[in-house]
Amino acid sequence: MKENGHRVLITDDEESLRFVLREILSREGCQVDEAEDGREAVDKALANGYDLYLLDMKMPRLSGLDALREIRAA
């Protein structure tokens, strides 16, 4: 499928959920990146910027809500 130009960051500590989301979004033409926890998500967001963030609420190191707060503050 042709890329739609949307950049998405999937953040979840469950690899199987990241896989499912990556497959769905990739089929829709999104450019997908992944992070295993909130801290990694913040680092990637600050380095790359994305159109959409899918964040798990409960993750090790930094929760999805805390990660979102840091991303928005930057």
* Biggest pleated-sheet summary: 3 strands, parallel
Please state roughly what percent of the residues sit in beta strands, choosing from under 5%, 5-15%, 15-25%, 25-35%, 35-45% or over 45%. Answer: 15-25%
Approximate shape: globular
User: Biggest sheet, strands in spatial order?
Assistant: 2-1-3
Give the topology.
Blueprint: E1 7-11, H1 15-27, E2 31-35, H2 38-48, E3 52-55, H3 64-73
Parallel strand pairs: 1-2, 1-3
Helix pairs in contact: 2-3
What does this structure look like?
Helix content is 46%, strand content 19%. The chain is an alpha/beta fold. The protein has one domain (7-73): Rossmann fold, CATH 3.40.50. Helix 2 runs parallel beside helix 3 (64-73).
What key attributes describe this structure?
three-stranded parallel sheet; Rossmann fold; 74 residues; alpha/beta
Summarize the structure.
This protein is of the alpha/beta class and 74 residues long. It has 3 helices and 3 strands; from the N terminus they run E-H-E-H-E-H.
